[in-house]
Amino acid sequence: MARPRQALLTKERIVEAAAALIDAEGLDACSMRRLATELGVQGPSLYNHFATKAEIVDAVAEVVVAQVDISVFHGNDWREALRLWAKSYHAVLAAHPNIVPVLATGPGRRPAGLAMAEAVYGALIDAGWSRARATHIGALMRYLITGSALGSFALGFDADPELYDHYPHLHRAHELAAHRDAVDEGAFQLGLDLLITSLSDRYDLGVRR
Amino acid sequence: MARPRQALLTKERIVEAAAALIDAEGLDACSMRRLATELGVQGPSLYNHFATKAEIVDAVAEVVVAQVDISVFHGNDWREALRLWAKSYHAVLAAHPNIVPVLATGPGRRPAGLAMAEAVYGALIDAGWSRARATHIGALMRYLITGSALGSFALGFDADPELYDHYPHLHRAHELAAHRDAVDEGAFQLGLDLLITSLSDRYDLGVRR
DNA sequence: ACCTGAACACCGTTCAAGT
DNA sequence: ACCTGAACACCGTTCAAGT
């Protein structure tokens, strides 16, 4: 088969398969040859639709970020909007943890990433925050959200239990994995709550630096 | 040359060269063959000293984390200790940003990582925080520190300036890169300040959940 | 226009062969 | 014990050849 009259591939099919592969087996498993096999095609065929592998991965990142709900910035107080957006973003990344490293470096040229940055920054500016502070708050939220999505804290203590016996306070660290949700979600919720509450306090004081 | 009477390689030399290579050109550039070349040796020779590439990268992570100052947990109020430790950790990661993805998934079996977890958690327990809350606070700090170290927020808007013209509030986003330090450091400092201040408030209220 | 096989310059890792 | 060359099964990407 050289060229079928009906194209075998489309950008959409490629991105869909890449997203599934990344979700199921991680970024490393998503090689051009492997992805092509998944699509019933040979590796080089993908280059008829995307110039590089990075473009494919970027397109996956785009569809993931597009799932974040940014409609909450309309009709909500900035505090509530920020909280709802952060929870939505957090939930989307929890569902697609393997793509997080790609998002953690910024919006790039991705429309959904830029639309999200615009919505967050615009809402803070409209609420009266200075441009410098609005930028800081936006950055800070990304730090918390991507930092928490990058790797489970609870699952980070997955060595053999005996290892932790050498550390007076860590001797039960291996039990964290069994309470993964309570640990990881609890930490994120605490962080979000602390940040928004204390930002709100400063705002009410009229600091608005 | 088959076997020199004086070994050409040592674990220390390998880790030192790997750290330099990762700092200078990133994790991807640190391949076994490239690293071996840097050491004047052939690729497979490295396997006489480390079982896998992951072990080498882990050893680099260890020496980086070992630079974080955890002595601050002695003789300081928990608030001040947490602040000083976070600043030290942040500064170390800022000096070695390319290794951050390796640390972001937890301490693993690395002595320095475990000693740091022990120091942070122990200090929070000794201050009176419950085990659940101390865990949350520890996780939260890692989220902020690794999240901020993973990628500059300011440099994330590095597309051509025209791209941002389509977004009402982002039209000056390309100027962020010129103020990278003020943006990135300001956001981190703000986050650290907000978190510790608001934790302190809850602590003084006697919540200590 | 779009898919293919062959090729290039890389990977991590294994292993028998050398001293 | 420690370094080597050759090999295996992979990478991302290019390109001439096919329809």
Automatic annotation (TrEMBL), chains A, B:
One of its GO terms (biological process) is response to antibiotic. Residues 8-68 form the HTH tetR-type domain. It comes from Actinoplanes campanulatus. GO terms for molecular function: DNA-binding transcription factor activity; transcription cis-regulatory region binding. Keywords: DNA-binding, Repressor, Transcription, Transcription regulation. Pfam families: TetR_C_1 (PF02909), TetR_N (PF00440). This is AcrR family transcriptional regulator. PROSITE patterns: HTH_TETR_1, HTH_TETR_2. InterPro entries: DNA-bd_HTH_TetR-type_CS (IPR023772), Homeodomain-like_sf (IPR009057), HTH-type_TetR-like_transc_reg (IPR050109), HTH_TetR (IPR001647), Repressor_TetR_C (IPR004111), Tet_transcr_reg_TetR (IPR003012), Tet_transcr_reg_TetR-rel_C_sf (IPR036271). Residues 31-50 bind DNA. Gene3D superfamilies: Tetracycline Repressor, domain 2.
